[in-house]
Amino acid sequence: MSKTRVRLWAVVGGLLLAGCSHKPALKVDNSDQPYRIGREDVLDIAVWRDGDLSRTLPVRPDGYISMPMTGDVLAAGKTPTELGEEIKERLKPYVQEPRVTVILREVNSSRVFVTGEVAHPGAYPLRGRVSLIQAIALAGGFTDFANSNGIVVIRNDGPEGQIPVRYSDLVSPKDTQELFLRPGDTIVVP
C-alpha cells in the first residue's frame, strides 16, 4: 500500500472517529503538580547537624507551623521544598549555613466529600489518584433512590466549577476516560 493511501485512510479514520462522539468529553486531571502542604498534614523537618531544631510538626488548622527561632511559618499551600527554603532563610541569623529538609510524614488535608444518595455520605481521604467511580465505591455505592446520571462534581479550585457527570458514561465500554478527583472536590449524588 502506498504512503499516500495510508495517509488517506488515517485521515478518513480520524474523521469517522471524530464524528462518533455524541457526548462531551470528561475533564481528566492528568496534572503532575508537586504536592502542596495542607492543614492537618504532619511534617518531618530536619535541620542538618542540629537535633534540637529537627522535629515532627503538625500543620495547624490556620495553616502555620511553629518552630524555635523561626516562630510561626505559613506551611499550607507550599511545597515541601518551598517550606524548607523559607525555614532555611529564617534560620540564617542563628545557624551557620543551615540545611533544611521537609518531608511529608502524613497527608491528612486531602479529602473529597460525597453527599446525597449514597450509602455512607461523608469525607474521604484522597490517597493518590482517586477516580469518581472509586469515591462512590468508598461511600458504599448508590442508594435505591439515587439518580446516577445526574451526578455533579463541585470543584472550587479550578475554572470548571460544577461538572455534570452521567454514571452510565463512566462505566460505558466505549468511553475509557475517568474523572479524577482533586482535594476539596464535592460529589453530589441526587
In brief:
The chain has 190 residues and is an alpha+beta fold.
Explain this structure to me?
This protein has 190 residues and is of the alpha+beta class. It folds into two domains: 42-106, wza like domain (wza like fold, 2-Layer Sandwich), CATH 3.30.1950.10; 110-189, Outer membrane lipoprotein wza fold like (Roll), CATH 3.10.560. It is 21% helix and 26% strand. The protein is built from four helices and ten strands, in the order H-E-E-E-E-H-E-E-E-H-E-E-H-E. The strands form three sheets. The chain has a five-stranded mixed beta sheet. Strands 2-1-5 form a three-stranded antiparallel beta sheet, covered by helices on one side. A two-stranded antiparallel sheet has the order 3-4. The longest helix has 17 residues, at 3-19.
The largest sheet, given as strand count, sense and whether it forms a barrel, is:
5 strands, mixed
Q: Give the second-level CATH assignment, the architecture of the largest domain.
A: Roll
Secondary-structure element sequence?
HEEEEHEEEHEEHE
Q: Rg to the nearest angstrom?
A: 23 Å
Give me the side-by-side strand order of the main sheet: 7-6-10-8-9
Name of the CATH homologous superfamily of the largest domain: Outer membrane lipoprotein wza domain like
Structural class determined from secondary elements: alpha+beta
CATH class placement of the largest domain: Alpha Beta
- Spatial shape: elongated
Helix content: 10-25%
Share of residues in strands: 25-35%
- CATH topology-level name of the largest domain: Outer membrane lipoprotein wza fold like
Mean pLDDT, all residues:
83
What is the count of structural domains? 2
- How many DSSP H or I helices? 4
Q: Measure the end-to-end span.
A: 54 Å
Keywords: Signal
GO molecular function: polysaccharide transmembrane transporter activity
Organism: Stigmatella aurantiaca (strain DW4/3-1)
InterPro entries: Poly_export, Poly_export_N, Soluble_ligand-bd
